[in-house]
Amino acid sequence: MKIVLVGYMGCGKSIIGAFLAEKLQLSFYDLDREIEKETQNSISELFQSKGEIYFRKKENEILKALLEKEEDFVLSLGGGTPCYYNNHELLLKEGVFSIYLKASVETLLTRLKQERTQRPLLHNQDEVSLKDFINKHLFDRNFYYHQVSKIVTVDDKSVVQIVDE
Ligand code: S3P
């Protein structure tokens, strides 16, 4: 089974994915890191130099290539991955089990406040506008986030609890 983690920036996809893979003795892939490896650029640099459309195209190509692998693995997507091209449909493929790590706006806000300058989609937001931005963005993305096999809420849970669930 290929386990794919979905969720908004800051919900914990990468850390939970790494721990889950270790627990299940599977390889772990983080889609952003795979994009960085292939393009030899950081995500921020890619957004800046080539723009979001280029990034989304690479994201789609590399996701497709990963899902075609024979091996089973745990894969953490980027926050926007299911919302572009036909990516959310790729996750409905046989042999893929997708999990939405669902965090409340309050949890996301607390986590993203300190990190917003490093994130290409958030660096224009000040602390006041960030909550509205996340609210609207989540509203837009909710449809895609809910096309999964299972939803796990992450608020107030430890990494161990979430991985067990
Ligand atoms: C994005 C989330 C980021 C990264 C890119 C775009 C998004 O990944 O893919 O900055 O559209 O939400 P994380 O969710 O791992 O931060």
Fold topology:
Layout: E1 2-6, H1 13-24, E2 27-30, H2 31-39, H3 43-49, H4 52-67, E3 73-76, H5 87-90, E4 96-102, H6 105-113, H7 127-145, E5 150-153, H8 159-164
Parallel strand pairs: 1-3, 1-4, 2-3, 4-5
The structure holds shikimate-3-phosphate (S3P).
CATH-derived architecture: 3-Layer(aba) Sandwich
Strand percent estimate? 5-15%
Number of domains: 1
Report helical residue fraction: 40-55%
Structural class assignment: alpha/beta
Under CATH, the homologous superfamily reads P-loop containing nucleotide triphosphate hydrolases
The spatial strand order of the largest sheet comes to 2-3-1-4-5
Q: Number of helix segments?
A: 8
Main location: cytoplasm
Family: Belongs to the shikimate kinase family.
GO molecular function: kinase activity
Pathway: Metabolic intermediate biosynthesis; chorismate biosynthesis; chorismate from D-erythrose 4-phosphate and phosphoenolpyruvate: step 5/7
Characterization of this structure:
The chain is built from eight helices and five strands. The protein has 165 residues and is an alpha/beta fold. It has a single domain, classed as Rossmann fold (3-Layer(aba) Sandwich). It has a five-stranded parallel β-sheet. Helix 2 packs across helix 4 and helix 6 crosses helix 7. The longest helix is centred in the C-terminal third of the chain and has 19 residues. It binds shikimate-3-phosphate. Shikimate-3-phosphate (S3P) binds next to loops. The site of shikimate-3-phosphate has 10 residues, from loops.
